[in-house]
Amino acid sequence: MSTTLPPTTRLPEQAWKSEPISEPDYLRNKRGIMSWVYTLDHKRIGVMYLIGILTAFLMGGVMAILVRTELLSPSRTIMGPDAYNHMFTLHGAIMTFLFIIPSIPAALGNFILPIMLGAKDVAFPRMNLASWYLWVFGAVFLIAAMALNGLDTGWTFYTPYSTTTNSSVISATLGVFILGFSSIFTGINFIATVHIMRPKGMTWFRMPLFLWSLYSTAIIQVLATPVLGITLLLLIAERALGIGFFDPKLGGDPVLYQHFFWFYSHPAVYIMILPAMGVISELISTFSRTPIFGYRFMCYSAIAIAFLGFLVWGHHMFTSESAMAAVIFSALTFSVSIPSGIKVFNWLATLYKGSISLTTPMCFALSFILLFTIGGLTGLFLGALATDIHLHDTYFVVAHFHYVMMGGSLMAFIGGMFYWWPKLFGKMYSEFWGRISCLIIFIGFNWTFFPQFILGSRGMPRRFYDYKPEYQGLHVISTSGAFFLGIGLILCAAVFLHSLWRGRRAPANPWGAATLEWQTASPPPLHNFVDDPVVTDPYDMADFELQRDTGDYVRRPYTPSQSDGTETQS
Amino acid sequence: MIAEAQLSQGPAPHADETFRAHHFETAEQQFAAAKLGMWLFLVTEVLFFSGLFVAYAVFRVLHPEVFVNSAALLDTKLGAINTVILLFSSLTMAWAVRCSQLGQQRGLVLCLSLTIAAAVAFLGVKGIEYAHKWHEGHLWASQYGGPQAGETFDRAGSFFSVYFAMTGLHAVHIIAGIAAIGWLLKRSLRGDFSPAYYTPVDVVGLYWHLVDLVWIFLFPLLYLVG
Q: Measured between CB atoms, which of B36, B52, B62 is closest to A196?
C-alpha cells in the first residue's frame, strides 16, 4: 500500500536499503518455540506481554460492546440481568488488571526501558520472565471465574456482597492476587534497573521522561500493590473460612475493605496514567522537533503525582467517612491537579513554535492531551464534595474515568505502539491508515463517552441494567459511538498486522529522536547495542539529519563550524 | 561489616566472576542490584503486613476490651520462647553472613543449619499453640467456640481472626525462609560461597531478619496487651 504524505511530515519516503548488519536481531538470533518459552531477553518478554495484554484487550473490548448493546433499550435487549452483571464486571476486571495496568509498563516499558537507558537488560531477567508467567497464571484464574460461576461483584469486589454472592469470587480474586505479584516484580525490576544499570554518562537528569514516568510508576507498584495483595487474601479467607474482617455479621467492617482496596486502587490509577504521560512527553517532543519544555519540572511532577496519589484514596468513600476526613481528602484530591497541570502546560509549551509533523503517534498524542484534560477536569467535579453528592455512582463517573483511562492511557498506549513499532519489529506501518484509525478512534471515543457525562448529570446511575425511558436517547447515541469506536480499533489492529506482513523495513531512527533506543538497529540485536551508545541530552534533536535515500536520521558528523550553537535554539 | 584487615589477604569482595550474569558490567554491580532488589522486596513485605497491622489497630480501637480479655487466652510463655528462638536464629543468620564474608566454610554450614533448626523449632512451638487453640475452640470469628464466648466479650472471635491471620501469614514466611536457607545450605555445601561471592547469603539474611522483626512486633501486640 503506498501512502502519499504531505512534504512537511519529514517521513522516510523511500524504501530502506539493506545495510550490513553485524549481529542478528533479537527476533532472529534464536528460533523455535523453546527460545521464547525460556527467554530472558527483556525485548522478547516485552513482546510476549504485548501479545498477552492485546488478547485481554480484545476480550474486554468485546464485553464492552456487548454491555453497550444491552443498554440500547431499557430492560432486556440481548441478555438477562445476571449475564449483564457478569459482563460489566469482567469487562472492568479484565481491562483494569489484565490490560491497562501492565499495558505500557510491562509491554512497551519492558522493551524500551533498558534500551533507552543504554543497558543490556533489566536488572533481574529471570524475575522479569517470572512476572510474565505470573501474569498468565493470574489471567487464567481471573478468566476461569467466567467459566465457573461468573463474577458479578463489579471489578472492586466490594464486601459484603462479594462475601455472599455465589459467583466465583475466590477464583477471580486469586487471579488478581497473582497479577499483583506480576506487577510488583516488574516494579522492583524497573527501580533496580534505573538505579543500578545506568551506563556512564546517563545521569538522573539525562534520563528521558518516559524513564522518569516508568520509575515513578514502579514506586507505586512496589508500595501499593502489596496492600491489594493482603486485602484480597483476607477477602478469600473471609469467603473460604469466615474470618470476619469485613463481614459485619462477624464483627467486621465492610468500609475497612473499601479503605484497603482504594489504598491500592487509587494509586493504581496513577500506575495507569503515569506511563502514558511519559509516552506523551516523548511523542510531543520528537514530533515537534523541540526539546521538552520544563524538563526538570516534568521529572518532579511525575514523582509528585506518584506521591500525592497515595494520599487521596478516601475520596472514594466521601459518604462513609467523617466530614472532616472528606474535606481533607477532597483538598488532597485537588492537589493532584497541580502536577498534572504542569505536565499539560509543558506539553503545550513544547508544541509552541515547534516544527510539528502530524504522524500517527503525534495524532494520538494530541488526542491524549485533549481527552486527558477533559478527564482530569471532570475529576475535579467528583473531587468536590458538593457536586459529588449529585454525581457519584452515576454515568458521570463512568465517563470521567473512561476519559482518563481510555482517552488517556489507551490513546498513549496506541500512540506509543505506533511510535516504537518500527523499533519493535523493524517494520514501518501505513501512515495514512494509521491516521485514519486515530481519527475514527478519536471521534468514536467522544461519541461514546461524552453523552455519558450528560446521562450522569441527569441522574442515570452506573452499572444499572434497566433505566427509565427518558435516558434511552443518550444511551443509543453512546452505543452507536461504541460501534464506531470498535471499527477504529479494528482498523488500527489491521494497520499493525498489515505492517508485520507487508511493511517497509524500518531504519534505525525513522523519527529523528535523540533518545538511545533510536541509536541502535531496528529491531535491536540481542544485547541491544553493538557498540556502547553515546549518552547525550535526550531531547537535543538538532544534530540528527534525515538521509533522504534511507529514511534514516543520522547524527551529523562533528565539525567545529557546526557546533556554534546556531542550530540549537528552539 | 567486612573486616578489612582479614580481607586484605584474601580475594577482594565481589571478585568472583563465576556467577556474574552477562548483562552486568561487574560482579560488584550485580551485588548492588541484588541487594537493592531485596530491600525493595522487603518494602513490599512490610506493606503486605501493614494491612493486617492496620486491621489490628482498627479493631483494637473499636473494641479495646476484647483485645485485653482475649490476649489473656494466649500462652505468653510459649510466645516468649518463640521470641527467644527467633532472636537466636537471627544471630545465627547474621553469623552465617559473616562466615561467608570471611570464607569460614564450616562455620557457614553450621550457622545455616542452626538457623533452619531454630525456624523448625519455632514452627513446632507454633503448632503446639495452634493445636491448643483448636482444642479450646479459640478460633477465628465464624468458628469461634471458646467457653468464654459470652456477654462480656462476644467478639473474642475478632481477636482470634487477627491472631490467626497475622501469625499464619508470618508462619508462611518462616516456611519460605526455611526453603531459602535450605537452598543456601545446599549451595554452601557445594562450596559456592567465598569472600569473593556471598550475595545470596547476604540477601536471604536480610529477608530472614525482616521475618524476625515482624514477630518482634507481633509478640507484644498479641500476647502482651492483656
A: B36
